[in-house]
Amino acid sequence: MAEIAEIINDKIKHFGRERVALLPILQGIVKEKNFVNNQDMVQIAEALDISAADVFGTASFYSFIDHVERGKYVIRVCKSITCEMKGKHKVLQALEDELRIKLGETTHDKKFSLLQSNCLGLCDQGPAMLINEEAYTHLNPVKVHEIINHFRNLSK
Amino acid sequence: MSNITLTIDGQTIEVPKGITILEAAKKINVKIPTLCHHEDLCVAGNCRVCVVEVKGKHRLEASCAVPAEQGMEILTNSAKVRIARQDIVSLLVSEHNTQCTTCYRNTNCELQDLAAEYNVDGNRFLSVLKPNIKIDKSSWSIEKDDSKCIRCQRCVRTCAELQHVNALTASHKGHEMKISTFMDLPFNEVVCTNCGQCVNRCPTGALTERRYFDQVWEAIGDPTKHVVMNTAPSVRVALGEMLGYEVGTRVTGKMVTAMRKLGVDSVLDTDFSADLTIIEEGNELLTRLKKVLVDGDKSVKLPMITSCSPGWVKFIEHMFPNHLGHLSTCKSPQQMFGALTKTYYAEQKGIDPKDIVSVAIMPCAAKKYEANRPEMNASGYRDIDAGLTTREFGLMIKQAGLDFKNLPDSDFDSIMGQSTGAGVIFGATGGVMEAALRTAYAVVTGRSVPFENLNITAVRGTEGVRSASIKVEGCLPEWKFLEGAVLNVAVAHGLKNARVIMDEIAAGKSTYHFIEVMGCPGGCIGGGGQPIPTNAEIRAKRTKAIYEEDMSKPIRMSHENPEITKIYEEFLGKPLGHKSHELLHTHYQKRHRH
Predict the structure, then answer these.
(1) Which residues of B are catalytic?
(2) pLDDT per residue over B20-79, tens digit each?
(3) What is the pLDDT of residues A112-133, one digit of tens each?
(4) Edge-to-edge strand list for the sheet holding B304-305
(5) What architecture is domain A73-154?
(6) φ and ψ at B11, to 5 degrees?
(7) 8 A C-beta contact, residue B91 and residue B125
(8) ipTM, 2 dp
(9) Beta-bridge partners for A75
(10) Within this chain, do residues B576 and B467 fall inside the same structural domain, yes or no?
(11) Residue B11's domain is classified under what CATH number?
(12) B188 and B105 within one domain
């Protein structure tokens, strides 16, 4: 895993020691470990000479920049009305049963987090969800089972 | 700049190009209500209460954010505007905790005023007040109650623009957006300097100072307790605003009488310990100058910076922890007062210090924190038992039902009640510098400072950072090493400007010898504990009153205060002596930046 300091310096090299570097740094850290913690934010604030509250304000604005620890695979089920009408509820239930966690939680082995997201723009292929940056469409409980198993095997 | 012509509610006016519709309306006394707008801060345009109708435009415009343009026809109170405004206020109130009777800002709340004007409550639409919002009471100085917050972000802008602290931010988004500290940590765990400027700009009761007046009432009611109250210089020029006086009215005599009427046993003056601060700090400065200029002592730091403002002290501890050596080791007048109350005063009056309750009335929120700093117990007891703001004190007077305007004037008690004009001007930016120069110059040369009426106007004013140079000539023999020296001094107020000064020092580019820093814009007269509202015009009037009070004093140099002479003879010995170090000086600590 790349050091947080490395990510910060890398982005500063590219974007300058300016506030504009903040979002790329946050994205870089999230890409690396799926969330930004307190220490990371303090470190970013020091590097950019801005306040830690500013970093937190920016990070908390974006759904895809988590500031609480998430699993290796972050599942985001689309909560838009179209996916809802196409059976999102059953998909969500299947995910909760399969992972034995509730919406918003992370599995004990820190492999999966189950979240919802605003419209993914895949209304024609709903219900849809993201796992990290990959989209999964036309979902149903059987498909959910297969997908989760696939990721379980991947991380073994 | 060129002018433009527009009409507002049918009245044609000519205004300079570039000003907003709101500012244009103000010029002809057309009142447009505002909430997120504040004269001291940048435009936010988020509350929408100031909407007006612009002829030819389909949508209503936020007058605080839209520049007035040539030929505009504005309606500020059309039916469309009134209905929209009522809806906006209703929506704001629908997510506001409307338990107004127990709210500290009751009758001084901008949202309440608007709700009254538009006759709305929180139930016209769906009440969406979030349940179980916890009030953050972790800080000794500031309380935050999100159930009263309308998310106008005046506090966020205050903390960022005026104070460069950025302890507050707008976090999350949409209906979850809230005003947060870093990670929503409690106030006492973050970078907050306790200056209270956010409290002073909060339109509602979301941010308030932590109140201690119940404790004070309890002590007053306890016959075994001897309650000593001291008031800061800037309280006497602002308190009147809470009690029906015009801004800028001096109410010193009535204030003293009011304290007695409340049942306080001894009414004393923080201006006395301000004079004492000048003696200690002036001697500290001269000692530092000697060590650097004569002895070549590298461990002694110049410039020396004042330490009266506890918001500023906490700022430097957080932001420039490697430069604490520049701070004067003198305690603030409040803490000197506290330490002496439970030693010198107790001794002279024959009262057991354990029975003394010392209360400080301050223009300040940070003073509460300062009073509670663990090290502030030099007397063997808590030096200051309670620090109240001007606002809390005003409320106590109201609670007591005093007819303030018809109270007779009276004088402070003795001992520790006598003061000079130099002590008084501590209340305005530049005042400590001026007071210090009046005394230091006199001590070194045996003559008064070469300014008319002792008024060192060069360090007065409203500029964020001001500087002056004073050539020292005709020194007395013991100060010969200063002969011909040019003393460079600077004054900064508001933490934004303090940072300018500190950045220079950190870069090794500072050419100053002595700097005064006040945490709040305008100094204490604009303090976070002063009556609400505070803005540039109000600060100017309070400042004027401070200098009038100075001129009204028979003695205007700290070292000529007879009670100061007496305390050195009877108790302290000499400036910077053993007792002084024990009681009147302190140390600082490094803090983190988040």
Answers:
(1) 281, 284, 308, 328, 367, 370, 375, 524
(2) 999 999 999 999 999 999 999 999 999 999 999 999 999 999 999 999 999 999 999 999
(3) 999 999 999 999 998 999 999 8
(4) B304-305, B514-518, B486-493, B465-471
(5) 3-Layer(aba) Sandwich (3.40)
(6) -100, 125
(7) yes
(8) 0.91
(9) A114, A131
(10) yes
(11) 3.10.20.740
(12) yes
